[in-house]
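fwd from M.: "can u put these together and see what the complex looks like"

so here's what she sent:
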Amino acid sequence: MKKVGIIGLGEYLPAKILTNADLERMVDTSDEWITTRTGIKERHLAARGEAASDLAAKAGGQALKDAGLKPEDIDLVIVATITGDMPTPSVAAILQDKMGMKDAACFDISAACAGFVYAISTAHQFIACGSYKNALVVGVEVLSSVTDWQDRNTCVLFGDGAGAAVLSEVKSGGIVSTYLGCDGSRTGVLNIPAGGSGNPATHETVDKRMHYLKMQGNELFKIAVNTMTRAAEEALRRAGLTFSNVNLIIPHQANSRIILAVAKKLGIPEDKVYLNIERCGNMSSASTATALCEAAREGRVKKGDIVLLDAFGAGLVWGAMVIKW
Ligand code: COA
């Protein structure tokens, strides 16, 4: 099996910013409530007509440039998203055309907030066994398109964005271990009830606002802390490492209180935890992707460092990964 690592990263956040003050004018909420309960101050929103593939193309272009590759060098495109341009075709297929990655294999992965870790892990397998050479993996969401802007329980939480990584064979370092999993008995606590084959779109489903994300946040909180802690522990055990070896943890950015509770349980100091939730909110599969890109750009990740990705979301899925930089 070949060693596989990340050789390029890119990010795109839409220009429009929605602040907590803006939300105070839309629903019965306050900057104080949002900040203390979630850690979020503002989030980016895609412009009308700006689709997931548009965000993905900007992040993907940056990642290719960072890797020093051309679009035709990419032979595998995997996009993690729950907010594709349309139900079919995949965002990956649309992205292939937009970026000119001719003939590359293309598919999307639906693993919500753990989607980027799932997608990186999938690309890793394909490259390690020699089926493909260079993969572009993108975590992208336009969550504003499935957010109920009348529901204060959810609308203060989400944002739009894209992060991308190019994976290829590396001589040293690379992906050391992965731990993916799911508890499918808890699909009811976080979902979009209508718009799929189980409940196709009708006037009634639209009137009942069933095409928006529904979340039992309180119920999820404790599960998120416990699951992310367990996932991180297992990924490190599989890597033969301990938390003292970790230089930086890149967690899914659902809530800063969840993240800091996980770090505390794991005994990881706060200065080893990367956060972009204050500026970006929860961007589902784009959260870990953009956070990794920003951390690398800011010099928080150096050659030889041990980086731990740790994500959790609707499914309920989890994915943790240890990467040697
Ligand atoms: N502004 C003001 N008040 C709000 C509010 C808002 N935006 N949203 C909810 N509230 C109110 C509730 O109505 C409730 O009022 P009540 O006590 O009068 O009924 C009160 O605040 C407390 O609500 P609760 O849901 O218990 O708050 P919380 O402390 O659990 O925080 C979340 C809510 C969503 C921020 C938090 O539960 C969370 O982050 N959950 C996990 C999210 C997650 O992990 N998702 C999975 C990965 S995406």
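replying to her w this: The radius of gyration is 19 Å.
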